[in-house]
């Protein structure tokens, strides 16, 4: 009986110790510990029953029902599953739809609160720095709450945008859902601006989590006499033990900070609301057009490119009579209507294969030379200029290039381009011939090294060397001007001249484009 009592007292002490110090341990470790304790309790109750020993009430409970703390988990889609007073839900974050995207604007919602969606459905349109991209869903669900309504501008990446649930019956519970409840990290962000408070917050967080605070006896007594919270003191002893000197240093530091507290607590003055400038008397009336996110970023990138990229330009005139004849013949049997621009895209791609230095990019510390040509074709849309990509244009026929270009132009004007259809590219061509200009000098699109600007086709009177001794030593020819803008860090004048010479040869003798075949190694 005495042995049983000693065993029981030791067991009860260990149970209470685990109950007090281990209840906030990790979820899985605590679950295994509870199972072990429950089994030991079962054995203890059997021994106590045979020895007629009364066990304390703590031994009559099952630790399998003790409260556990499961961690909050975030999946790879930026959807945060939260454990709160609300029903099971996920918070959708602003997705990263572009490598250079830092914030986005919600331009349209396709679903309303309470509407269900399936994988592949577009929940909303997000205006990025490149284009307007749809936010597609990858699972089934119901839209419970729209946090960012239509017109929400400059929403940071991974900021809460909406709340989704699995069941439609849970939607009413989120009627008064607040953004602060969706993003507690955002509310705590201002604390990072004050480094002194940031250091003091770490021990406090540990104390709240139930971790043991190591402190020497003298420091503990000194803290009690001076009414100092040990959770706010950072220890410098072994294993972070708090010493008496640490408390004294904390008290001196607190005295220095105290006079600044009222100043920091004063509310900040409201920011002045920008007012539109009034029309001056005598000047014509005006209208201020607000910049879209795409136009604002495009303006910043173009300014940066013009200021940081050392540009130089090479122009060349090409006769296109033979090219026009070939286009007419091809359109008789082609399913897709072939334009002059499609033939120029093919000629530029073949010239890049002949002069690969022009099909390169400046990467800061090295130059990247591409094996294939992903041709960017500039397209004017209501939202601005965008350059969708015809991938591997050097390996495609003219008919396939015409088909791909037409589809990309339609998507561009309808704002339905996918990120992979306009991000990247190795070379750009911009044809402004339909606007009737005689020369187009474009700005290089970093990190690409070159961009070709194409003018309109004009009829010109030229000297015919074969008829120089006749009464009519001239001829009428169709010409266009191509201007190659180059990044001098990647391409020098000799390389640019070689490229324009190859481009001119292919345009004036378009049958050569049909003769240039790629080897099986290049194709596969």
Description of the molecule:
It is elongated and about 130 Å long. It is an alpha+beta fold. Strands 11, 14, 17, 18, 19, 20 and 21 form a seven-stranded mixed beta sheet that branches. The N and C termini lie far apart (85 Å). Strand 15 (379-381) and strand 16 form a beta hairpin. The model is unreliable at 17-28, 60-83, 183-210, 258-268 and 517-524 (pLDDT under 50). The chain has 15 helices and 21 strands.
Strand segment tally: 21
Main sheet characteristics:
7 strands, mixed
Radius of gyration: 36 Å
What is the percent of helical residues? 25-40%
Rounded to the nearest angstrom, the distance between the terminal CA atoms is: 85 Å
The rough form would be described as: elongated
- Low-pLDDT runs: 17-28, 60-83, 183-210, 258-268, 517-524
**Mean of all residue-level pLDDT scores:** 77
Count of discrete alpha- or pi-helical segments spanning 4 or more residues: 15
Q: What's the quaternary structure here?
A: single chain
Task: Give me the secondary-structure topology.
Layout: H1 2-21, H2 27-51, E1 73-74, E2 80-81, E3 89-93, E4 103-109, E5 116-117, E6 122-127, E7 132-136, E8 141-146, E9 155-156, E10 160-165, H3 179-182, H4 184-187, H5 195-209, H6 217-226, H7 244-257, H8 261-265, H9 293-308, E11 311-319, H10 321-331, H11 340-354, E12 360-362, E13 367-369, E14 375-377, E15 379-381, E16 384-386, E17 389-390, H12 398-413, E18 427-431, E19 450-454, E20 458-463, E21 474-487, H13 493-508, H14 511-515, H15 520-523
Parallel strand pairs: 14-18, 18-19
Antiparallel strand pairs: 1-2, 2-3, 3-10, 4-6, 4-9, 5-8, 6-7, 8-10, 11-21, 12-13, 14-17, 15-16, 19-21, 20-21
Helix pairs in contact: 1-2, 6-7, 11-12, 11-13
């Amino acid at each position: 009986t005495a042995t049983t009592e000693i065993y029981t007292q030791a067991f009860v002490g260990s149970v209470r110790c685990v109950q007090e110090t281990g209840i906030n341990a990790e979820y899985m470790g605590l679950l295994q510990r509870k199972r072990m304790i429950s089994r030991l309790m079962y054995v203890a109750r059997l021994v106590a029953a045979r020895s007629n020993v009364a066990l304390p009430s703590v031994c009559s409970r099952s630790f399998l029902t003790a409260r556990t703390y499961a961690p909050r988990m975030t999946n790879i889609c930026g959807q945060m599953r939260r454990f709160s007073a609300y029903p099971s839900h996920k918070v959708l974050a602003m997705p990263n739809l572009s490598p250079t995207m830092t914030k986005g604007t919600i331009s349209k919602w396709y679903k309303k609160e309470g509407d269900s969606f399936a994988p592949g459905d577009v929940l909303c349109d997000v205006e990025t720095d490149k284009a307007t991209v749809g936010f597609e869903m990858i699972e089934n669900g119901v839209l419970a709450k729209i946090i960012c309504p239509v017109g929400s501008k400059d929403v940071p990446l991974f900021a809460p945008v909406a709340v989704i649930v699995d069941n439609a019956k849970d939607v009413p519970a989120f009627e008064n859902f607040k953004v602060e409840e969706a993003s507690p990290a955002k509310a705590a962000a201002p604390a990072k601006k004050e480094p002194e408070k940031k250091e003091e917050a770490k021990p406090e967080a540990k104390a709240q989590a139930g971790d043991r605070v190591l402190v020497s006896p003298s420091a503990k007594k000194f803290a009690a006499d001076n009414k100092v919270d040990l959770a706010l003191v950072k220890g410098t002893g072994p294993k972070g033990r708090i010493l008496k000197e640490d408390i004294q240093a904390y008290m001196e530091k607190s005295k220095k900070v105290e006079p600044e507290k009222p100043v920091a607590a004063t509310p900040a003055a409201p920011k002045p609301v920008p007012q539109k400038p009034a029309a001056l008397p005598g000047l014509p009336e005006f209208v201020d057009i607000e910049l879209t996110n795409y136009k604002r970023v495009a303006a910043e990138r173009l300014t940066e490119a013009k200021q940081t990229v050392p540009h130089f330009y090479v122009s060349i005139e090409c006769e296109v009579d033979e090219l026009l004849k070939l286009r007419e013949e091809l359109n008789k049997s082609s399913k897709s209507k072939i334009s002059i621009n499609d033939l120029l895209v093919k000629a530029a791609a073949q010239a890049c294969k002949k002069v690969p230095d022009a099909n390169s990019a400046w990467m800061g510390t090295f130059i990247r030379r591409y094996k294939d040509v992903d041709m960017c074709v500039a397209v004017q849309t209501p939202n601005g200029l965008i350059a969708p990509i015809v991938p591997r244009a050097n390996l495609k026929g003219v008919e396939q290039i015409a088909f791909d270009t037409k589809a990309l132009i339609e998507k561009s004007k309808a704002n339905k381009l996918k990120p992979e259809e306009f991000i990247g590219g190795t070379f750009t061509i911009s044809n402004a011939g339909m606007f009737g200009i005689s020369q187009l000098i474009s700005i290089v699109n970093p990190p690409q090294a070159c961009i070709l600007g194409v003018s309109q086709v004009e009829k010109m009177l030229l000297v015919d060397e074969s008829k120089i001794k006749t009464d009519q030593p001239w001829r009428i020819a169709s010409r266009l001007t191509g201007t190659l803008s180059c990044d001098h860090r990647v391409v020098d004048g000799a390389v640019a001249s070689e490229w324009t010479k190859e481009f001119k040869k292919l345009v004036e003798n378009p049958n050569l484009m049909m003769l240039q075949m790629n080897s099986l190694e290049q194709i596969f």
